[in-house]
């Protein structure tokens, strides 16, 4: 079962990526929890937490470099295909700009 911490990170990246998969750029579905007993019918566009370094990567245990992303939000389909070890042709998409709320409540672009 996913930890609350991982759910919070998944929510953070889902919002930061404006609800789009970091690989295919398709809009994802936010589902708070998906029951393990229903894993056979998981929605392909459900948001998942994508670990950008594999468990076999020894650098995964090192402290991240400044600005290095270790996780992102990915749709279930992309996360599953990437984890299968099949050829993966897509690069990680750049993050969209941060939309900040100004003092008057209006959206402003931030960096």
Structural summary, described in words:
The protein has one domain. It has two helices and four strands, in the order H-E-E-H-E-E. A two-stranded antiparallel ribbon has the order 1-2. Strand 3 and strand 4 form a beta hairpin. It is globular, with a radius of gyration of 15 Å. The C terminus is likely disordered.
Q: What portion of residues belong to β-strands?
A: 15-25%
* Order of strands in the sheet with most strands: 1-2
Q: What is Rg?
A: 15 Å
Looking at the structure, what is the overall shape?
globular
Can you tell me the number of structural domains?
1
Give me the count of strands.
4
Give the overall average pLDDT: 78
Give the helix proportion (percent range). Answer: 10-25%
Number of helices: 2
Largest pleated sheet: 2 strands, antiparallel
List keywords for this structure.
111 residues; two-stranded antiparallel ribbon; disordered C terminus; alpha+beta
Write a concise synopsis of the structure shown:
The chain has helices at residues 4-16, 76-83, and strands at residues 47-51, 71-75, 98-101, 107-110.
List the helices and strands and how they pair.
Elements: H1 4-16, E1 47-51, E2 71-75, H2 76-83, E3 98-101, E4 107-110
Antiparallel strand pairs: 1-2, 3-4
